[in-house]
Amino acid sequence: MTDRRQGRDQNAAWLAAEQWRERARRARPTRGMSGPRMILTWLLFGAMMIVGTLIGLVFLLIGWLMLPFLRHRMKKRMERMRADQAQDVGGGTSYRETHYQETHYRQSRGRDERTGKRERDVLEGDYEVKDRDGVD
Fold first, then answer.
1. What's 6-51 look like in SS3?
2. Burial class (CB in 10 A: 0-12, 13-18, 19+), 107
3. What keywords would UniProt list here (predicted)?
4. 111: which residues sit within 8 A by CB, 6+ positions away?
5. pTM for this prediction
């Protein structure tokens, strides 16, 4: 048995492994957390949880209290949009009608000089009936 022990002491890999074990043993804490320290840690953690919950409840209440004001603002915005739409409808032609008139005017002016055909064949439901021969 002493022969084996002497072989281990001279083996470089064995010595390195022993040194590694010793360093790992020193790095590990020798005793666990004491009772008062553990209780203090749990109390601190519990207090942080309670404070976080209270802060969350405060923000929730603030949000609930802001809802009527936000609803009032949105209602005013919708009334303003409806008034603008009513002004557009009653004040003359709407954007859609103006766009249709401009497009229709451009289309009627946009005929090809050689063939007399329109540049755009179909727009807003307008169409041309062609003969079977394919001539207008």
1. HHHHHCHHHHHHHHHHHHHHHHCCCCCCCHHHHHHHHHHHHHHHHH
2. middle
3. Membrane, Transmembrane, Transmembrane helix
4. 117, 118, 119
5. 0.38
Domain boundaries, the chain: 2-29+36-105
Tell me the per-residue pLDDT of 77-106, one tens digit each, with 9 for 90 and over.
999 998 888 876 655 555 555 666 666 555
Residue pointed to by tokens 């766009």 = 99
DSSP SS3 for 103: helix
SS3 65: helix
Closest CA to 122 of 107, 101, 100, 112: 107
Nearest to 35 by CA among 27, 45, 43: 43
State the residue for tokens 């009527």.
Answer: 68
The dihedral sign for the CA sequence 31, 35, 40, 45 = positive
Distance CA 21, CA 14 (A): 11
